Amino acid sequence: MADRIIVYWRDIPAQVIIKQGRKSAKRELTLRFTEAIDMCAMRTGAADSGDYLAEWRKADPVPVSDDLELEADKAAAELEAAYDKERLVALVKSGGKDNG
């Protein structure tokens, strides 16, 4: 079995990693996620590299199938659908924390 790991800045997802042993498939989420992270970092004063880097985290691994590329595409598509423009704007306004 492979593991799905989502990389977040605070509660804003940025990347999907599917890992099985030494093999992995990675997908960066689209530019709107990067822009939301950058905007939130500026608004909250976390633009300093130390503060910014301290806010990155990896979610706990979730078991998925052994098809790394398929699972990476699937997870990225699910996150793209789950985080519409309104949700990303709300996250930026709440300092990057998902209060819901």
Helices and strands, in order, run as EEEHHEEHH
Strand percentage lies at 25-35%
Q: Which structural category fits the helices and strands?
A: alpha+beta
Low-confidence region ranges: none
- The count of strands amounts to 5
Question: How would you sum up the major sheet?
Answer: 5 strands, antiparallel
The number of domains is 1
**C-alpha termini separation:** 31 Å
Q: Return the average pLDDT rounded to an integer.
A: 95
- Global morphology: globular
CA gyration radius, whole angstroms? 14 Å
Count of helix runs: 4
* Overall helicity: 40-55%
Describe the SSE topology.
Blueprint: E1 2-9, E2 12-20, E3 23-28, H1 31-44, H2 49-54, E4 56-58, E5 62-64, H3 68-82, H4 85-93
Antiparallel strand pairs: 1-2, 1-4, 1-5, 2-3
Helix pairs in contact: 1-4
Concise synopsis of the structure shown:
By secondary structure, the protein is α+β, with helices and mostly antiparallel strands.
Describe what this molecule looks like in 3D:
Strands 1, 2, 3, 4 and 5 form a 5-stranded antiparallel sheet that branches. Helix 1 packs parallel to helix 4. The N and C termini lie far apart (31 Å). Helix content is 44%, strand content 29%. A hairpin with a 2-residue loop joins strand 1 and strand 2. The chain contains 4 helices and 5 strands. The radius of gyration is 14 Å and the shape is globular. With 100 residues, the protein is α+β, with helices and mostly antiparallel strands. It has one domain.
